[in-house]
Design brief:
This protein has 202 residues and is an alpha/beta fold. It has a single domain, classed as 3-Layer(aba) Sandwich (Rossmann fold). It is built from six helices and eleven strands. Strands 1-9-7-6-4-5 form a six-stranded parallel β-sheet, covered by helices on one side. Helix 1 packs antiparallel against helix 2 and helix 2 packs across helix 3.
């Protein structure tokens, strides 16, 4: 893997907990969907730590003025959620992302020059990764430093494919597995979300 690709697997115990819930094959579908949402929330929380712009203002407290920090809304956030996995991750993440514009499934026709992009996508595998989305964004003038990619799970092989084309992309995920067969299944993986998520898409 090209070392400049920034793949972050936060060592948060709640992320590990919910990943284990997704890995358990007997987990009920409703709890499986909850696990997806929780992973989306905590990955987004970690991703925003150093990326979210803020401004300093003086507020009047009960004991006088105090220097305080607020999210800077002059830098808009666009969320792009792939259906259904990305959308389910977004259900949890929306608790921690302030006032974004949401685009479902497909890219918008226009993106502002100062707009930050958070892309919630399916599991990253060798033959099913986010390269098409990233290529279209790049063609629109949105380069990697304006994009955060959040996904539930990755394979080493899938990350290698992204690194060949977008070596500086930043990716947040709950884990990195191997691809074990010609069907590109992840091992140990989290099963097939299309069959287990309570959000269905035809």
């Amino acid at each position: 893997m090209v070392m400049s690709l920034k793949v972050i697997v936060p060592p948060h115990p709640l992320i590990r907990h919910w990943l284990s819930i997704l890995r358990e094959k007997s987990t009920p579908n409703a709890l499986y969907s909850t696990g997806f949402e929780q992973i989306g929330k905590f990955l987004a929380y970690e991703a925003l730590r150093e990326w979210l712009p803020y401004k300093e203002e003086i507020v009047e407290t009960f004991h006088g003025p105090k220097s305080s920090f607020f999210i800077n809304s002059n830098y808009p956030i666009r969320v792009i959620a792939e259906i259904p996995e990305g959308l389910t991750l977004w259900y949890g993440a929306k608790e921690v992302i302030p006032n974004p514009v949401l685009s479902l499934g497909e890219l918008p026709q226009n993106i502002k020059n100062n707009e930050g992009i958070i892309l919630f996508t399916s599991q990253i595998r060798k033959n099913n990764n986010a390269i098409d989305f990233l290529t279209k964004l790049d063609n629109m003038g949105v380069n990697s430093n304006r994009i955060i990619l959040i996904t539930s799970l990755c394979s080493k092989e899938g990350l290698n494919e992204i690194a060949k084309v977008f070596p500086y992309q930043k990716i947040y995920t709950s884990g990195i597995d191997d691809e074990s067969d010609q069907l590109n299944n992840l091992n140990p993986g989290i099963g097939n979300p299309m069959l287990r998520l309570t959000t269905k898409f035809q």
